[in-house]
Amino acid sequence: MHIIGVALMLIGVYGLLTNRHMIKIIVSINVLEVGLNLFIIAVGYSDNKIVPIITSQSAGASNYSDPLPQALVLTAIVIGVGTTAILLSVARKLYQQYGTFDLTEMEAK
Amino acid sequence: MKKITAIILVSLLFVLLVMNMFDSDINFNKMDQSEVDGQYYTENPTSANMVTSVVVDYRSFDTLGEVTVLFVSSLGVAFILGGLSSRIKFKQSQSFILKVGTDMLFGMIILLGAYMFIHGHLTPGGGFPGGALIGAAFLLKYIGDDSYRAKISAFKALEGTMGSIYVLIGIIGILVGNYFLENLLDIGTLGNLVSGGLIPIIYVLIGLKVGSELTGIFDYFVNEEV
How far apart are the C-alpha atoms of B78 and A85, rounded to whole Å? Predict the structure, then answer.
């Protein structure tokens, strides 16, 4: 899982480096974010640990996995939603002004 | 040429990261957690869902900051797209089936969202996913009917009230107890619907706030210039 997380992050970096289309850049940022979140969740994983929720089956157990990385990822996801909303609204405003999402065409105008 | 350079750069970075990760003595899958912060949280949970007890009890101040970030981002969207006022008309007119179907689903999705943030301290989910579901229900309405407008001023009032109550609960924590956002109420039996002290109350506040913020953001996105 750690490797998948790192790989997704780097796919996002690759997308940021090669694309000039605004929507594609925003999608790349989101892929990067998903990779990072997956990596943090994977760091919290541990063999023989159970989900940190007390149910009638798991009452009294002592092998709950660490809830902290999951809580931090919850925060990170919400902040990702906020930044994505801002980025999309900027993209939409620029599209209204230039009639294109491509940054190279925007520079030419 | 640009793509080849990017591929080389990214694969170098990948090799570097993976090598460092697996050369070290840390074995992620067999980590001993007895010396980690997380053990305190699992030994002294204040709600049946321990993630919730971290998010809205031990680190409630972080969550207040997180809610503030979402509030500022919805303000930013309002600032950028605020000049647009008329509703976007779709090129294709909506069919009868689509309109009736969205009306039927709307109530069920709202109900699921409410269930999620009311049971946030017992089951997976909580205020943020529940709020996102409520926002999604309104997005469905917007897509299903191109003359639909939510009462956005009511949502703004709801959002502001919920945020203020959250801060007020924190200040009551200073006045009555010892620190900001202290969990003053009795925790009760873990696993009951009424348990966890302030946790269910705060999660309902967060759920309503996130739902109204996301609805506000969607409302700005379906507007266009006159």
Answer: 11
- The answer to whether A52 touches B42, Cβ cutoff 8 Å, is yes
What pTM was computed for the model?
0.88
Q: Domain residue spans in chain B?
A: 50-224
Nearest to A14 among B7, B124, B221 (CB): B7
Q: How far is A47 from chain B (nearest CA, A)?
A: 6
SS (H, E, C) chain A: CHHHHHHHHHHHHHHHHHCCEHHHHHHHHHHHHHHHHHHHHHHHCCCCCECCECCCCCCCCCCECCHHHHHHHHHHHHHHHHHHHHHHHHHHHHHHHHCCCEHHHHHHC
* Cβ-Cβ contacts under 8 Å for A24 (sequence gap 6 or more): A15
User: How is residue A31 written in tokens?
Assistant: 């892929």
d(CA A39, CA B103): 39
Q: What is residue B86's three-state secondary structure?
A: strand
Which domains, ranges and CATH numbers included, belong to chain A?
2-45+65-108 (1.10.287.3510)
Q: Tens digit of pLDDT per residue, chain A (109 long)?
A: 788 888 999 999 999 999 899 999 999 999 999 999 999 888 888 777 888 888 888 777 778 888 888 899 999 999 999 999 999 999 998 998 888 899 888 888 8
B198 contacts B185 by C-beta, under 8 angstroms: yes
Is residue B49 within 8 A of residue B127, CB to CB? The reply is no
What is the interface pTM, i.e. ipTM, of the complex?
0.87
Q: What is the 3-state secondary structure (H, E, C) of B107-121?
A: HHHHHHHHHHHHCCC
**CB–CB of A59/A25 below 8 Å?**
no
Q: Best of B11, B15, B17, B122 to disrupt the A interface by mutation (most A CBs within 10 Å)?
A: B17
